[in-house]
Specification:
9 strands; alpha/beta; two-stranded parallel sheet; globular; five-stranded parallel β-sheet; 2-enoyl-CoA Hydratase, Chain A, domain 1; 57% helix; 312 residues; 2 domains
């Protein structure tokens, strides 16, 4: 075997070894750190810090605190070049926290901020990535509509309901239609089940907040100086989709006017492996939590354990 063939064989064996999933949370964290470094290298020498990972977490005010603490550890390196890559895997969360978090990342990526979405950045996480200069999306990556999701207790049926303020106008239109068709009893019944007018007004106002946040982020980086285009994209993200779970893939995102691009052939396997390891870590943490709960519940009297112990 020639020297070059032997080196190629060794490289292939090393790659195969790297592809084997670690079996512990600590091992996964080490593998993720290595993959992030490798991903950072694919962006060229101008990227002065490895990508930041925001994974498997809802976006809340506590998330902002946690990210701020972590960013300070790499602040000197980031601030020197003003370039940052953020890998996002999130189903969304609080819209105000997402805006704050996006502005925070922009402070550390003053010259270049790239968001990488392996699988999903839905709802408020979509607002987050609107704050970057560009978004890298795999073929299965998803963004989502920005209409807020309201969770309230239905006072009539004593149950929790989740809805979009976009549904308010369609509900009012349905009531108007029933009145016009002479179905006054049905229309009045529907009308009595609505929230107070002030509450309805405040819920509808939440749509304007999402539009304002999105337009401001887009017009100051991704579409700098193009306020009308930014507002058009923001309006579409908030109002154009009847279903909050709508899949905005890379083609749909491009049609909306977002600056998106696919990973390179070199980047795609790294990005996808990061996603798979994040999923595996989440599964291990969930199993660890179940195991700890089982141990705590075993301390209870036997008569109280029935039906409380989580399934194995």
């Amino acid at each position: 075997m020639s020297k070059s063939e032997e080196n190629s064989k060794n490289d292939a064996e090393d790659l195969e070894a790297d592809e084997k999933d670690p079996e512990t949370i600590e091992g996964i964290d080490e593998a993720l750190e290595k993959l992030l470094d490798e991903l950072g290298d694919t962006f060229g020498e101008n990227v002065a810090c490895h990508p930041f990972l925001l994974a498997d977490t809802p976006i809340t005010p506590r998330t902002v605190d946690k990210v701020f603490d972590e960013l300070q550890d790499i602040s000197d390196l980031c601030l020197e070049e003003g370039r940052l890559i953020v890998v996002v895997d999130s189903g969304g969360g609080n819209i105000d926290a997402a805006y704050n978090l996006s502005m925070l990342f922009r402070n550390y990526g003053k010259n270049q901020l790239t968001f990488v979405v392996p699988r999903w950045a839905k709802s408020a996480a979509t607002l987050l990535v609107c704050g970057g200069d560009s978004v890298m999306m795999t073929p299965v990556a998803e963004l989502g509509p920005l209409d807020p999701q309201i969770t309230q207790i239905n006072p009539f049926e004593q149950r929790v309901e989740e809805f979009s303020p976009l549904h308010i106008e369609s509900t009012l239109e349905m009531i108007r239609s029933e009145f016009q068709e002479g179905n006054n009893e049905l229309a009045n019944g529907l009308l009595q089940r609505l929230q107070f007018p002030i509450t309805l007004g405040s819920l509808k106002k939440s749509l304007d907040i999402s539009k304002r946040y999105a337009a401001k982020l887009l017009a100051s980086r991704m579409h700098q100086g193009k306020e009308e285009l930014a507002e058009e994209i923001a309006n579409k993200l908030v109002e154009n989709y009847a279903n909050h779970g709508f899949c905005i893939n890379i083609d749909e995102a491009r049609d909306l006017g977002l600056a998106v691009q696919p990973p390179s052939p070199q980047q795609l396997p790294l990005v996808w492996r990061i996603h798979k390891l994040v999923r595996k870590k989440a599964d291990l943490l969930a199993e660890q939590e179940k195991s700890e709960m089982r141990e705590r519940l075993k301390e209870l009297p036997t008569s109280l354990q029935t039906g409380l112990l989580p399934e194995v």
